[in-house]
Design brief:
heterodimer, A: mainly beta, three-stranded antiparallel sheet, 53% strand, globular, B: mainly beta, seven-stranded mixed sheet
Chain lengths: 112, 114
């Protein structure tokens, strides 16, 4: 079955340490992939998308088709990075339609 | 630009009642999506509307329904409310249709069933 998986519910790192938020997917095509972020008391917002290949707030994400992963990385974590992070991928939902499917999210906590 | 707006912020109902949630997309956006965010379950896709038509629905019973108006705003209706319908309901909009388009989210409506 097609799915997107974020294996870690919670990830705690110290300020200044590298961060890697994992996202794995099962999909046979070449998907468009997204990372969304929700900071405390703010709405869910797009962080970055694979197709744009840009770095937002120091975060990057590389698509690894061999491992079917789209991990989110940042070399030096900041306290303001503490948030809930969701990986999202359009998955086939039948009748020729695709639907953006979210992982269950990883809560990143950056320890000062 | 004004973001996606949802109303009401909170809604309290009892079992068996009906609830109506409203969403106004970003100006110029034609696609509206509804999600349910229940505790521990992440975001579950509910419905997708584009140009006034339902384009896709998630794995939810028929008592979850909605519509999109000519001005692209949308309503989500939930009939015969059950306790497990208690959740945050998020609306999102996108400039173009298609699952590969970035979605912009509202703050949500928290629905509580007593």
């Amino acid at each position: 079955a097609q799915r997107v998986t974020q294996p870690e519910k919670l990830l705690s790192v110290f300020k200044g340490a590298p961060v890697e938020l994992k996202c794995n997917y099962s999909y046979s095509g070449s998907p468009e992939l997204f990372w969304y972020v929700q900071y405390s008391r703010q709405r869910l917002q797009l962080l970055l998308r694979h197709i744009s290949r840009e770095s937002i707030k120091g975060f990057t994400a590389d698509l690894n088709k061999g491992e079917t992963s789209f991990h989110l990385k940042k070399p030096f974590a900041q306290e303001e990075d503490s948030a809930m992070y969701y990986c999202a991928i359009p998955l086939y939902s039948g009748a020729g339609s695709y639907q953006l499917t979210f992982g269950k999210g990883t809560k990143l906590s950056v320890i000062p | 630009e004004a973001g996606v707006t949802q109303s009401p912020t909170h809604l309290i109902k009892t079992r068996g009642q009906q609830a109506t949630l409203r969403c106004s997309p970003i100006s110029g956006h034609t696609s509206v999506y509804w999600y349910q965010q229940a505790l521990g379950l992440g975001l579950q896709f509910l419905l997708w509307y584009d140009e006034g038509e339902e384009r896709n629905r998630g794995n939810f019973p028929p008592r979850f329904s909605g519509r999109q108006f000519p001005n692209y705003s949308s309503e989500l209706n939930v009939n015969a409310l059950e306790l497990e319908d208690s959740a945050l309901y998020l609306c999102a909009s996108s400039l173009e249709e298609g699952a590969g388009q970035p979605q912009h989210f509202g703050d949500g409506t928290r629905l509580s069933i007593l």
